[in-house]
Amino acid sequence: FFIHHAQTDRLWTLWQGRNKTRLSDYGGNTVQNQFVNTASLSDKLSYMGLAEDRTVESLMDTLSNGLCYKYDDEE
């Protein structure tokens, strides 16, 4: 589970790094099997009390907003 999600995050970060305008690319549906594009950067991500809830936009850049990590093979 964790390896899968870490790899997904790494690939997303590498994809973003190839074009900085991709830092704000986000969209699609938010409910499985519903094909209405409702996803937005202002969507809230709930940490269910474990941490402060965040917006998608605040987590798009791994080098800002408290994330501050980089993968070894990033360009």
From TrEMBL:
Annotated protein name in UniProt: Tyrosinase
